[in-house]
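Study this protein:
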Amino acid sequence: MKRVQIDRRQLGKGLAAAMALPLAGGLGSLSARAQRYGGTWSSLAGLSEEAQRLGLSVPRMGLAPSSSSEDFTEIQPAIVDFMDSVSASAPDARGVTSADVDSLLDRASELLRTARNAERMPRDIPEGPQAQAITAPAFDSIAEDYRRLFATCEIRSEKRSEVMWYVSKITDPTRRKAYDQVFEETCVPWYFVAIIHGMECGFDMQSHLHNGDSLKKKTVQVPKGRPAQWLPPSDWVSSAVDALRYDKLDEKPDWTLAHMLYRWEAYNGWRSRLLYKINTPYLWSFSNHYTKGKFVADNVWDSNAVSKQCGAAVMLRGLVEAGHVAAPA
C-alpha cells in the first residue's frame, strides 16, 4: 500500500473514522521518526504500534510532527483521534480483550491529560500570594457586551481547520449520546455540556467534566473529592451530572446566548476580564477578539502567553456556522 504523506494538522479535520485504517506495516517508520522528538510523540507512536499488533485501527500518522516542540494544537487532535479510532475499531477486532483496549485508552488518556494540564487555563483559585478577591460582575452589566462580541466574532482563518476539529468532536455520535443523557438529567443544553467537555477534558471520555481528572477515582484538583457517589471508571454521565450540579447549572432556567457566555466565563473565572482587562481566552481564543495573555498556572498571569486551546464561544460560533445548532437568542 502506498504511504500517503499528510500534515498532522489534517488530523484536526474531525475525520478520524475515515482515516482510521489498519496500517499493514510502516508504523516502524513512525516509531523511528517519533523517537527523534521523544516525549509525547514517542509515547503515542508506541501506543499506535501496540494497537496495530492487536489488529485495531489507528489514524494514519506515519510521519514526524511538523516541529520538534510538543505543540498542544498538534498533540491534542492526534491523541483524541487515536482514542476514537481504537474505540471504534475494537468491536470488530478479533482476539482483542476489553482489558487490552482499556489499557490503550487509559495510557492515551494520561498522555492527553498531561498535555492538557500544561495548556489548560486553570480555574480561579483565590488562594496564594498573587491571589486577589474577585467579585463576579452582575449579569446585566455585561450581557450586551457578550451579545456584541458574539455577533462580531470571526474565527481566525489560520485556526478554522482546528475549530472544525473541535466541532467534529462535539457532534461525534458517541459523545452526542452522552451529552444528551446529561441534558435529560439536568436540562443543561447538550452543546453547553459538550463545550465544557472540550475545555476541561479535551473531549476525553475517561476524564471528569469537573476539571479533567481521571475518571478512575474522585477528583483531586479543584473541585476536589467529586463526585461523592458514582461508579468508576466508566460512568462518565453521572460524573458530568455531578459537575453541573456542583456549579448549580442544573438550576438555571434561562439559556440565552448571553447567559451561556456568562456561565462559561464564570466556570473558569473572572480574573482575565477584571484584573487584566482582556476578553478571556476561555471564551474567545482562536477568534478576532483575543490576541494574547493567559494564566499559565494557578494565579500566575503571563501577558505574552497565547492560548492554544479553542475558546468556548468560538466553538459555539463553529457549531452555528456549520449548522449544527441555531444561533442562540
In short: The chain has two domains: 8-119, 139-321. The radius of gyration is 20 Å. Residues 1-37 have pLDDT under 50 and may be disordered. The longest strand covers residues 294-297.
